[in-house]
């Protein structure tokens, strides 16, 4: 993860987008994104994720607030800001009769970049598209079309890459290959902002997690810090002999499995005392023999749902 004192490549300052209907798609959003990091934006449908990305990319005009990319204001110096950005949108929109390689070449030309077939080949090979370079885009599967969108977004060597639900409709094998490509881009210093409904991907790939809901940015934290602050652990105690019922001396919130052979106990990692010692002591006092003990950390999905519930 890039150092905290590194200058941000994206600066979002009090950004608001309000439509004539009165809907606040974005409500006073401020956010700094450091060069070379991966930021995952999480939120339910309609939360404002795509509006935020579209505004930073210059596709949506904000009602108020400012956005700078590489120090360039997206409204007053939009051309310089836009050259630093690559965008992979949710919707798959491609010219159906155009060849894959020509599609990527054309996008590169739109940014005023000189032809570079060696670089285009490098992109297509990294996305497993080289063998399909002469295929018409209408002949491709949905997953392959999404790869073409990524190739187009990378065609002008952007410093910032936005991935808006990049693996939607992609099978598991293609998804893993795409994240390998993303990891390679991160190693080359490309800043990546992604939205995804596959929360396990965000948990694995992201340096920081941002949670947005109803147009408001609830929080932005390093992933490990977020998991530490909001994550809970689940303790499973396997018993040697089954229990017919829970003894009265056990702490509250202990759950007996239907087969009576294990106990479940959720505890907060932030609490001064977890209650585990008390639980084990109570079992010993009841002469209940323990076979094994295991703990499991809450997943990002569980943390995410908890944040949304608390924000209501």
TrEMBL record:
Keyword Zinc: no
An example molecular function term from Gene Ontology annotations: ATP hydrolysis activity
Keywords, comma-separated and alphabetical: ATP-binding, Nucleotide-binding, Transport
Pfam families the record matches: ABC_tran
Domain named ABC transporter: residues: 10-239
Name of the protein this chain belongs to: Antibiotic transport system ATP-binding protein
Organism in which the protein naturally occurs: Paracoccus aminophilus JCM 7686
Lineage, broadest ranks: Bacteria, Pseudomonadati, Pseudomonadota, Alphaproteobacteria, Rhodobacterales
